What we know:
The structure is a homodimer. By secondary structure, chain A is α/β, with parallel strands linked by helices. In chain A, 43% of the residues lie in helices and 17% in strands. The first copy, chain A, is elongated and about 85 Å long. Chain A starts with 5 loop residues before the first helix and ends in a 10-residue tail after the last strand. The relative contact order of chain A is 0.12. The interface between A and B is large, with 50 and 48 residues. The structure holds a DNA duplex.
Amino acid sequence: MKRPTIRDVAAAAGVSKSLVSMVYSREDGVSPERRERVLAAAQKLGFTPNQWARSLASGSGNFIGILVVDLHNLIYTEVADLARRALLERGQQTFMAAAIISERKGKKFVEKSTIQALLDLRPNGIIVVGDLPEESALASIPDSVPIVKTIATLRKKDRAVSIRSDDKEAMALVVKHLRMRGHKKIQYIGPTDGAVSEQRLEAFNLAMTNQGLSPKVSTCERTEAGANSAAKAALAEKNPPTALVFFNDVLAVGAQQAVADHVAAGKPFVAVTGFDNTYLSELSQISLTTIEPEKEAIALKAAELITDPKLVASMAGQEILMVPRLIVRKSTDFSQK
Amino acid sequence: MKRPTIRDVAAAAGVSKSLVSMVYSREDGVSPERRERVLAAAQKLGFTPNQWARSLASGSGNFIGILVVDLHNLIYTEVADLARRALLERGQQTFMAAAIISERKGKKFVEKSTIQALLDLRPNGIIVVGDLPEESALASIPDSVPIVKTIATLRKKDRAVSIRSDDKEAMALVVKHLRMRGHKKIQYIGPTDGAVSEQRLEAFNLAMTNQGLSPKVSTCERTEAGANSAAKAALAEKNPPTALVFFNDVLAVGAQQAVADHVAAGKPFVAVTGFDNTYLSELSQISLTTIEPEKEAIALKAAELITDPKLVASMAGQEILMVPRLIVRKSTDFSQK
DNA sequence: TTGTAAGCGTTATCAA
DNA sequence: TTGATAACGCTTACAA
């Protein structure tokens, strides 16, 4: 009933437990016949080594930890999964854990123990997917363990490498696209609860001024309902925007009710854009113009970097920006609506 | 640089390491002054116990493992998160891991090592969220560790307890609803790749015959595109259905293009239903009539059960069926369309 | 090539 | 109440 250990196998095979250990951890150094004997015994007993006991003894778990900051964020799970598959193809074991984000007094924070739990497993490297509200837990990772962050910004003096899409470029694409369609009153709607959201907002402002337009901005919570009421408010003003640029797809989709109501009330068409190109935006009823942040490229790059500690060390504090693509769909195309 | 251990704390506090251990594992048994001294030293060094070394030594990790079968399934992540929060409130630590589902030769299967990895951590109990294609790995869990499955069916001779919604009841609700709106040609579209999907299909068949209707069924892959082409094919027949019942929300949403095209071609309104009441179905542009499987109740029940090993043992092999609710939205309401 | 023994960070047993 | 000492399942010098 109890899981067999290295000792059970050793006894069954008539060898010492170190020999059993060596069979599993080294290619050579044990004679073919003994190796066979050990393997046969292990097979019979149904033995597989306890990965975590190994990591405790050896000081390294020989796997890459993937920390997903928020399971409900479609783009996070997508990138995490892509990275995991890429690592798998490189023969790297991975272990994926989800952080717990709690909210106390309206402020989000990470349950530190979740991160610590993953760290205590002693990963060879760790890929953080998403913006961590608080990350003092990461400080306890030895310098020899590389950290790659994706879809997240770096802190000051951060030794990690960050991979994400170039928000400035993305917003430039969005604003240019809207401007070419004749929009001038363009309003941005999004949260300002983290580094990523603030940078995106700034990127919007910059893109607007570069196009000779004056940016207008309103903030909202990270919920569909929040986006919807923000959009409603924006459209209710006396000189309403003709285009709404949202922080991401989920918010854009959440606000489509307000937009539909506006149009139903006989007001002019309002263009809407999202960000992330999640599968939501593809749906035919939604058909949202959005930005593809090159999720696959981000995941691939993360997988490539994390397996090369020296490289990551040499790039400490750098941000790798992927060139985003604009995906035009019906939400910005009046004729198709 | 290295994380401090119990030994470092003991040295700093001038006590033995057993004492330090006791401070962290027992409420009493160590004098207040020593306790304080230990805590102070720990604080200064930034010590926190290594959870996994504890679990190795004590034989129990003192946490509940949550195994999410597929991160991309909205209902899985939702239930997993709800269960986690419920457990957190009961003061139970949790650790959430994602299974790797690979596909070889068109057949899905779980990367066994993922499950084993979670098991090797020695959880006090394990909640499986979703249907596992293959679960021999679970066999190595000692009988003393309770297993609760959610949104999944039980195998034969399964010692786990399963919590899910009553598909028969759900399908009865759906079919009755459609019948009351005058539909008689009702077609089911869904995959048949697992126990859950097959049971749902059967439930549909049963509900139809109970209503004196003859069921029609077609299968599709678990993708939006698959659902869409299946719907297209169904609607292209000479005597097309007037209502389409889908296995879940994602498929129903994926097929809305085919439905829209059908209506755009001047054909009569086609009612559509989903399953799961994910946030997709709520979106105003989608507004999908669906079944709420009582995710919250499922998660709560799972949390309640998993903390009571004896109870789970006494219920081995039982399935707890939650009474589902029908959520009526525009997708089955011609007048509102 | 193989076995012995110490140790990873912790708990648990048992004297003191 | 405290502190040795032996585990937990495994790795890893080091010795044979």
